[in-house]
Structure formats: C-alpha cells, structure tokens
Structure to design on (665 residues):
C-alpha cells in the first residue's frame, strides 16, 4: 500500500463519493418537498463504483450512464450547479432543462449521457469504442448498466462485436441485487460473468463497496484497453440504499429493512474509506469533517442557485430538434 | 449525359464521400466482399479496406447502436439495413437514441449518421421483405427522411445525407436498382427540403414519392393524351418537406393526388394531403386524394400483390374523375 504518496488521489476519491451522497440527499429532499418535477433514481450506496472507475479515466475517456446516473455524472467531473439546474428543468442545466434527471449528459467531461431505456446505451458505448479504434485514438469507453440490463438482448449483440473487433470498452455491471422491484436471482439465470466469458471477454467480479479495489481494477483494465487488449467485463457487487426511484418508499414486499440496515451499517463505501484514510494517517477526523461540511455547503448553494434560476424561454421548445449543418459543406467541391 | 443505374449512383455517392471524409465508414450485414445482396456496394471494400467497410453479425439493433455511438463521438457512419422491414428491429436505437440525443442534450450531442435501407413491393418477397415504412420514421422528431426516385436523386441525396449533421434515413426502391438515369460526371448534391417539379401542368397536381414518381409520370402521359395536363412533383425528402412548392402547385391546379407506397392509413399521403387541405383549402376545387398501399400485409401471390400498390391506371382514373368534378361530393 502506497498510501502516503497518493494522498491527493485518495482525498479526491473520498470527496467525490461524499459529493455524490450529498447530491442525492439534496435531490431526494427536492423531490419530497415537491420542488422537483418528475421523479429520480438515487445512486446512494453505490458511490464507490462510479468513483472507483471514473477516477481511473481521463476527460477524453467516455462513459455512458443509466437512469440511476447522478453518481456517474458527478464522478466524471460535473458541477453541482448545472446538475441541479438540470434536475429542476432550468435553462442553465447541462441540457438546458430538456433532459432532466434521466438524460443528464456532460460532454465536456466525456459523459455521453444517462439513458432512460434500460440497456439502451450499450450500443452507444460500444460504438464510441469502435470510433476510437477506427480513428486510432487511445480513449476508453466505460458502459455502466445495472444487473437488470443484463436481460436485454442488445448487450449480447454488442459484446459479440466488441469481442470480434477487440474494442476498448469496459462493460461495468452495477449489481445492486434488484432489477427494479424484483430480486436479481429471479431474473438472471446462471452466472452473469459467464455470459461475458462466453464471448471470450475477460470478466471480473469485485466488491463494489471498496473504492480502492474498484479503482485498482479499473486502472489496470483501462490501461490494457489502451493497449488493444479490450473489451472487458466487470461485475460490481453493490447496493442501492433507496428504492428503485424516490417514490418507492414501502419496499418490504421485496427486501427487508434488516438487509438494508446491514448494508448501510456494515458495508457503507464512504464510512469504510473514511476509516481507512484516518487509519493510514492520510486525513484526520477533523479534516474529514471539514471536507464533508464544505461539500454540504457547496450543495446547499447550488440548490439555492438552481431554485432561483430561470426556466428556458418557451421559444426553446422546438430548438435542437435537428442539428444545424453548415450550408458551405453542402456545396460541390466542399 | 451518361446514364448509370441507381445501384451505381449510390455506390458512387458513398465512395466519393468516403474519399472526402476519413471519418466516414460503412457497416452492415454483408456489405464488404458480398457488396450486399443487391450488389449496391460492390467494390468499396477493395478501395477502402475492411477497416472502413465492416461486415457485421446479423444484429440489427446492435450495429445501429454502434453507429449511434460512433456518430456521437466524431465519426460519420453509413449503416446498411438490408431490408426496410428490419426497421422494426432497430426502433429503439433509431427513434429513442439517435433521434433524441441532440434535443435531450440541449444541442450538445449530435448524431451524424445515415441509415440506408429500402422500400417497395411487387418483388414477390411477401409480407416481411416488401414493406415501405417511411411513415414510421417520418413520424419521429429528430430524424430526416430522404426518398430518391431515380439514380440522379439517389446520388445527390446520399451525398447530402452523409454531410448532414443529423440521423438521416434514406429509402431506396429495391425494384429500381437496375434502372438507369442521366447522372452528371461532375460532383453535385441535392439539398434536403427542395421538391422537384418533374413535369408541369395546369389541371391537377400529382405529388409522388420514390417508386411512385414513375407511376405518376406514366399516369400524366396517359392524361396528356386526353387533354388533361398533370403537374408531377417529387418532394425528394419528406422530412424536411418542401411545403411551399407543393402549395404553390396546388393553388395553381386546384386539385391534387398524393401517392406513396406506404400503407395508406396514417401514412405519408395522409400527412401531405392534410397540409394541403389546411393551407390551400380555398384554392381547391376537389378533395385532395390519398393513394397509398392497401392496408393489408403484402401478400405473396403475384395475383394479389400487384393490386396492393398504386398503379398508373388507377392514378389516371382518379385524376380524370377529380378533373370532371365527380368526386366533389364523394362522401
């Protein structure tokens, strides 16, 4: 363990996990106080997955995200202010309020967007990797999806092509134990890792509550992807603290309160990593408390800003249906 | 001017655009050495190699999905969907993903890709290889839809499609691949949203797409011999639609028939007819007629199949009746 030499990296990983948890706590409050239109899906509990992976990537690496996508968005470098604006449908949101919680995209950091069709971005991620290979670029694409998405046929089609053409893509399956309101074991036959292995894709399973383990594996796989050794598959064992979406309050018909308490009290990724940071002497309890307080303050200010921000002008409703094409490029000889 | 087949015209357009822009590549089932079952793409793999002409597995949603992702990140894929009927397989990737990325991202993401596919019955291919499904995609905001009616349009529209910054679906009439038309040697592009007045006339406007343009032209010849001057207009793209040219013609002739090979109900003909009714009502001397394919799955038997699609005799007959005032009180 080389803790001391990577102090900044570790503290950033911790901060990013806290930022995700804090973002979600605020988003949940906005929903419960009826300030947020629509609904949203909380990432709380799964922070080590997004942060462990995204900290192994650069801004030119791409990710595709899911309906449970706030964590990926924060981990890939997004700002609170534009994110809250987007959740509230405001003009300054990442998508000018047109996407909302389920479609946040932040191209400046390589986030190709959350996707509200389960498994819907598997083709996009694989196509991004195909583009990298065709153009000789060395970026890697990570495709985040849940265990529920492993039931979509699209995944098997694109894994086949990714393996045939050795594409630099990492399929990251966040197995949180539930496919919406149904236990994963009721929807998934056999082994999930074996499905990737059937295509000749190297598959790994990792503790998704251990940010260092996730990050170490992601670093290795991203580096190998850049050398042309992809694709890879990773199953990350994790847990979502909230329901399928914020309105899924009474969950006892599909999972027990004891089970939820066990994950929160004994396996929380932030608590675990915090303990490790203190034990290693990387940060003191006071420093961590100060850091937490700063993130809380940042989130509060961003929420206040977003609440006061403007909605898009109604003239924007039919903007961005089609992209502009420069007429000069449509001339012969152009 | 030289004459080349529609198949050759498509091939030339793609080759020229692939030479022009190194980010362009071609993918689909049997597009490389086989050059597709219709041999439209023969020779391209020899020039551009298997890196830029990719044979895919039979996984339509998968490879259309890959094209969307490649397009979102800086490439310009041209995807070959072997039969238009397979559009149903790729609806999520095309309509939920490709069509909506630009809008959902507030204009940040773009999807410059071409999906080339085909339409057209009477090839004795039965219900799952004969459909004309342009209405399905024209209904979805975010897509553009081109419908070439000859080799000339096929080349000029394809070149524009490749350079357009949006997902474009281009339907070729698979019965016209061997039909020749004059095509200039020098480079040209046909802009989207510009209808082509194929024949001028004062008595009635025949608005026809793709395979139905030649049907309308034949009907117009028959009518001309009887003293009825039909104007024939090919919109060339149905999204965007050159409404102005259509309205101008109908205001002049005061009668119109819209002809398209898709099913008539809830189809392209209905949309265009409706716009003419809304915007040229006081110029009309007769109701605007729709002529689409019958609302039946395409049958195999030639005896049945041939009567499911509009033919020149039917168009001429309807035109005569409209011009004679017989259909003013048709209801």
């Amino acid at each position: 363990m080389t803790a001391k030499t990577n102090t900044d990296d570790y503290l950033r990983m911790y901060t990013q996990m806290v930022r995700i948890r804090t973002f979600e706590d605020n988003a949940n409050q906005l929903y419960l106080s009826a300030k947020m239109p629509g609904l949203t899906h909380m990432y709380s509990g799964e922070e080590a997955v997004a942060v462990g992976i995204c900290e192994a990537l650069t801004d030119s690496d791409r990710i595709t995200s899911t309906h449970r996508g706030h964590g990926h968005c924060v981990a890939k470098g997004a700002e609170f202010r534009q994110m809250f604006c987007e959740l509230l449908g405001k003009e300054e949101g990442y998508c000018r309020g047109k996407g909302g919680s389920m479609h946040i995209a932040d191209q400046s950091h390589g986030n190709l967007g959350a996707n509200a069709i389960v498994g819907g971005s598997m083709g996009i991620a694989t196509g991004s990797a195909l583009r990298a290979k065709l153009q000789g670029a060395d970026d890697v694409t990570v495709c985040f999806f849940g265990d529920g998405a492993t039931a979509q046929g699209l995944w098997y089609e694109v894994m086949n092509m990714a393996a045939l053409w050795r594409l630099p893509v990492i399929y990251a399956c966040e197995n949180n134990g539930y496919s919406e309101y149904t236990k994963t074991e009721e929807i998934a036959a056999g082994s999930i890792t074996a499905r990737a292995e059937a295509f000749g894709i190297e598959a790994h399973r990792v503790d998704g509550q251990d940010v260092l383990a996730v990050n170490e594996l992601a670093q290795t796989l991203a580096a190998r992807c850049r050398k042309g050794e992809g694709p890879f598959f990773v199953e990350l064992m994790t847990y979502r603290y909230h329901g399928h979406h914020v309105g899924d309050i009474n969950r006892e018909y599909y999972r027990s309160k004891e089970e939820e308490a066990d994950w929160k009290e004994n396996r929380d990724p932030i608590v675990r990593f915090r303990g490790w940071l203190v034990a290693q002497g990387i940060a003191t309890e006071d420093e961590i408390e100060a850091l937490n307080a700063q993130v809380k303050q940042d989130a509060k200010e961003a929420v206040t800003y977003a609440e006061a921000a403007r909605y898009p002008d109604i003239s924007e409703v039919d903007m961005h249906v089609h992209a502009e094409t420069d007429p000069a490029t449509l001339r012969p000889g152009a | 001017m030289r004459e080349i087949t529609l198949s050759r015209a498509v091939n030339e357009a793609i080759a020229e655009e692939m030479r022009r822009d190194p980010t362009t590549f071609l993918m689909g089932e049997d597009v490389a050495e086989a050059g597709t079952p219709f041999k439209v793409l023969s020779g391209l793999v020899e020039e551009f190699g298997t890196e830029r002409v990719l044979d895919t597995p039979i996984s339509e949603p998968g490879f259309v999905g890959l094209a969307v992702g490649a397009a979102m990140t800086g490439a310009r894929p041209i995807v070959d969907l072997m039969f238009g009927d397979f559009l149903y397989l790729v609806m999520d990737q095309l309509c939920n993903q490709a069509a909506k990325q630009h809008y959902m991202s507030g204009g940040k993401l773009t999807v410059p890709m071409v999906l080339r596919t085909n339409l057209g019955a009477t090839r004795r291919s039965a219900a799952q290889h004969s459909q004309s499904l342009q209405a399905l995609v024209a209904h979805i905001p975010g897509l553009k839809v081109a419908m070439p009616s000859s080799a000339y349009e096929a080349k000029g529209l394809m070149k524009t499609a490749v350079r357009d910054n949006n997902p474009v679906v281009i339907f070729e009439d698979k019965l016209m691949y061997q039909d020749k038309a004059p095509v200039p040697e020098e480079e040209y592009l046909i802009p989207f949203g510009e209808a082509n007045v194929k024949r001028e006339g004062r008595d009635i406007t025949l608005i026809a797409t793709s395979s139905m343009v030649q049907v309308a032209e034949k009907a117009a010849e028959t009518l001309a011999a009887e003293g009825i001057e039909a104007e024939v207009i090919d919109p060339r793209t149905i999204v965007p639609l050159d409404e102005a040219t259509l309205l101008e013609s109908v205001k002049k002739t005061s009668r119109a028939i819209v002809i398209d090979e898709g099913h008539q109900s809830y189809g392209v003909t209905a949309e265009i007819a409706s716009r003419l009714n809304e915007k040229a009502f006081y110029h009309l001397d007769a109701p605007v007629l729709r002529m689409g394919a019958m609302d039946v799955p395409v049958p195999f038997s030639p005896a049945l199949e041939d009567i499911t699609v509009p033919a020149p005799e039917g168009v001429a007959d309807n035109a005569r009746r409209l011009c004679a005032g017989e259909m003013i009180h048709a209801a």
The two ends of chain B are 48 Å apart (CA to CA). Chain B touches chain A through 53 residues (CB under 8 Å).
